[in-house]
Write a structure and sequence with these properties.
44% helix; seven-stranded parallel sheet; 8 helices; alpha/beta; 242 residues; globular
């Protein structure tokens, strides 16, 4: 890596986000670690990142809140521009559509799609000016195939795939590459309550993936080795969706 680069990772205190932040730190990135409320988990992740010999700045804010996002990021962006942005923040609120509340629909869309918009719009301006950057959006197999009881989550993650492709076409000439990583069943808190005995037969590899396996792909997409890849969706799902 020719010069010190910064990576901003949203939803980075635990799970896939933490694994991505740690892997990028191992790659030599300084990390801006975003989270909403998991301060203790963020501190633990920060310690691991700093043990890699890089710096970690905690940037707590709710990505769904455009004002809070601006208040935190704008002063930082006046001084430095991240080379990589990983939009990972998201969560599930599962229910069948007929029983889904308005709030459960709104909140999932607001964090996944609203968060992508609020954060990316700010960072992108400086990336365009510098004519370089990597944006990696974390989608889900749910956004590719659709899953029952996840109409809100599937809609949000599918929207993120569409946004990835559109933005990639907009900014490719500025040397900004935009791609999507789509995990399947990954061993995180989000999947801890799923009926694994029913789901494993659906996965050709017969196991759940690890956050680190997702992080390896993000690492590649944020590296110089991915210099001719943009607008793509790379699945990390053990073959559950082909």
């Amino acid at each position: 890596m020719p010069d010190k680069r910064i990576a901003l990772v949203t939803g980075g205190s635990r799970g896939i986000g933490a694994a991505v932040a740690i892997r990028l730190a191992q790659d030599g990135f300084d990390i801006w670690l975003n989270y909403r409320s998991g301060h203790d988990a963020a501190l633990r992740t920060k310690l691991v990142i700093e043990s890699c010999g890089t710096t970690c700045l905690l940037v707590p804010f709710d990505v769904a809140d455009s004002t809070a996002t601006r208040n935190v990021l704008e002063p930082l962006l006046e001084k430095e521009t991240p080379f990589a942005l990983v939009n990972n923040a998201g969560f599930t609120r599962d229910a069948i559509m007929a029983l889904m509340s308005q709030r459960d629909w709104d909140d999932v869309i607001a964090v996944t799609l609203g968060g992508f918009f609020n954060v990316t719009r700010l960072v992108l301006k400086d990336m365009v000016r510098k004519r370089r950057g990597r944006i990696v959006n974390i989608s889900s197999t749910s956004g590719q195939s659709g899953l029952p009881s996840q109409v809100n989550y599937s809609a949000a993650k599918a929207g993120l795939i569409g946004a990835t492709k559109a933005l990639a076409a907009e900014v490719a000439k500025r040397n900004i590459l935009v791609n999507c990583v789509s995990p399947g069943f990954i061993e995180t808190e989000m999947t801890s309550n799923l009926p694994k005995e029913k789901l494993l037969p659906l996965v050709p590899m017969q196991r759940f993936g690890t956050p680190q396996e997702v992080a390896h792909v993000v690492s590649f997409l944020c590296s110089d080795q991915s210099s001719y890849i943009t607008g793509q969706v790379i699945s990390v799902n053990g073959g559950v969706y082909l």
